[in-house]
Amino acid sequence: SGVKGSFYISGTYDGLTWSSLDVATAERQADPLMAMTNTNGQLNLISSKHSEIWYNSLNADFPFERINSAVIDWGTNAAQSVEN
Q1: Distances from the Cα of 38 to the Cαs of 42, 48, 81, in angstroms?
Q2: What is the pTM of this model?
Q3: How confident is the model over 24-53, as pLDDT tens digits?
Q4: Which of 6, 43, 44, 72 could join 37 in a cystine, given CB atoms 3.0 to 4.6 angstroms apart?
């Protein structure tokens, strides 16, 4: 992706269509994303040093937004250790 902590979303109901404009970045620290999970409809971004929780805001431009109070000061370097 080029930017540490960035992630992309595909077209709605279309996992084959990707736009270079549909990108967001984990905002707390610029460390690489190691895993993403979905828990109770929330997107958990787990990087090497921290984790962030994003929710579906239904925004037409980019549907996910970070929950500002939901930043966890731990991450993982073992992506396969993260389960959904």
Answers
A1: 5, 18, 15
A2: 0.76
A3: 888 777 788 888 899 888 999 998 888 999
A4: 44
